[in-house]
Every structure is written in structure tokens, then in C-alpha cells.
């Protein structure tokens, strides 16, 4: 199993950073999620030493994404990265996105095995440039089946909220196909949640790629409560 990208959350409040880790861990249990909140003495503010230690703790060889809550947290994180004696082998990125929404989306992408660039795109709400598992320079192969489409009725009584949306994103990432749900790219947690789908609504699942049929079947099964 591929070791996931690590995530560091830099907040002026230790409680906020800890809370984001707690929330993200519900949907990304294998991802290194490290809080770097508050000052060294537990006050409100940020700490270079905490960020440096957090980057080291989050690094498992695939890179580290650092997300801050306010402008000065980003500045602290960027300065800490500059002070690293030895940057993570997989690279380190500092991203200025909403710490909760972006952090959870990044965690779900990392849980799905995405690389550092893809995890950063997920945190920003950007769609993946190509389906998971596809290769840009693949040799000529027989033509893949055409796009597949099916309709599901959303069974979850709470609608497509964060946890089932995260499960959908992780599921879609398993297939060599680009999957959409009501037109939203299923590789983006933020786009899926933004649909605001409620229980009982009809959902159109579409996929294009070698695994399109299997992807549609699996996503429909998930939405209708069969997985």
C-alpha cells in the first residue's frame, strides 16, 4: 500500500488545529495528520518550532502539505519551510485555503493515494487533470467502451454530507475512469459536497474510461446504500 502524503494544520489556536485533525481523521484514518496550533506556551499565535516539528512528524516519504488558517500562519509556515535543514524527500507545499474545507478535502485525497500535487489540487477544489491510474504516454490499446451512465436514488437519510461524500471520492479514485455525479467531478470532495444532495433525490452518475461501467455500478451501489 502506498504511504499517503502527510498534512500539517497551522492555526493560531491549538484547539482549531486539533479539531481539524480530529475531523479529517474520521475520513482519512491512515493519513499522517499533524496539528501545529498556538504558540510554544499554549497561547494564541503560531510557532516556527511547532511547524518544523509537525512537518517532520507528517513526513512519510511522499511529501507534506501545510495548510494555515490566516495570513500570518501562512507566513510562519513558509518561513519554517525555508528553515528546514533537510526538506521532505517528496517535497513540501504551503497552501492558503480554508483550513477546514480544504484540509478535509486534502485528507480524503491523500487517503485515496493521491500524490502531493493532486492533494494540493483537492484542497483548492480543483478537479484532477486525468483519471486515477491512467498514463499520459500509454501505448496504443483497443478502444475503451464509451461513456457509461446510470441514475441512483440517494438513500442516506442525511443526504450526501461530508462522510458519505468522502467515501464516494475514495471509491471513485479506485477506477481508471473519470467519474461525475450530477456533473460534478467525483475526484473533488468540495465539488461533491457543494451539490447539496438530499435524501431521496435522483442522482446521475457518469463515467468515461476503461473502468467506466464498473465505476458507475459501484458508485450507484454506494449512493443507494448497497455498499
Low-confidence stretches: 129-142
What is the residue-mean pLDDT, rounded to a whole number?
Answer: 88
Helix percentage: 25-40%
Instruction: Say which CATH homologous superfamily of the largest domain is assigned.
Output: Phosphotransferase system, mannose-type IIA component
How many runs of DSSP E, i.e. beta strands? 8
| Backbone structural class | alpha/beta
Q: Cα-atom Rg, whole angstroms?
A: 19 Å
- Strand/helix succession: EHEHEHEHHEHEEHEH
What percentage of amino acids are in beta strands?
15-25%
Summarize the main sheet: 4 strands, parallel
Shape: elongated
Distance between the termini: 22 Å
Quick summary:
By secondary structure, the protein is an alpha/beta fold. Helices cover 39% and strands 17% of the residues. The protein has a four-stranded parallel sheet, sandwiched between helices. The chain has a four-stranded antiparallel sheet with strand order 5-8-6-7, covered by helices on one side.
Give a written overview of the molecule:
This protein has helices at residues 14-27, 48-58, 71-82, 99-111, 116-124, 162-172, 189-194, 212-223; strands at residues 6-11, 33-37, 64-68, 92-95, 148-153, 178-181, 184-185, 202-208. The protein is an alpha/beta fold. It folds into two domains: 6-124, Rossmann fold (3-Layer(aba) Sandwich); 148-223, Histidine-containing Protein, Chain: A (2-Layer Sandwich), CATH 3.30.1340. Helix 4 (99-111) runs antiparallel to helix 5, helix 4 packs parallel to helix 6 and helix 6 (162-172) runs antiparallel to helix 8. Residues 129-142 have low confidence and may be disordered.
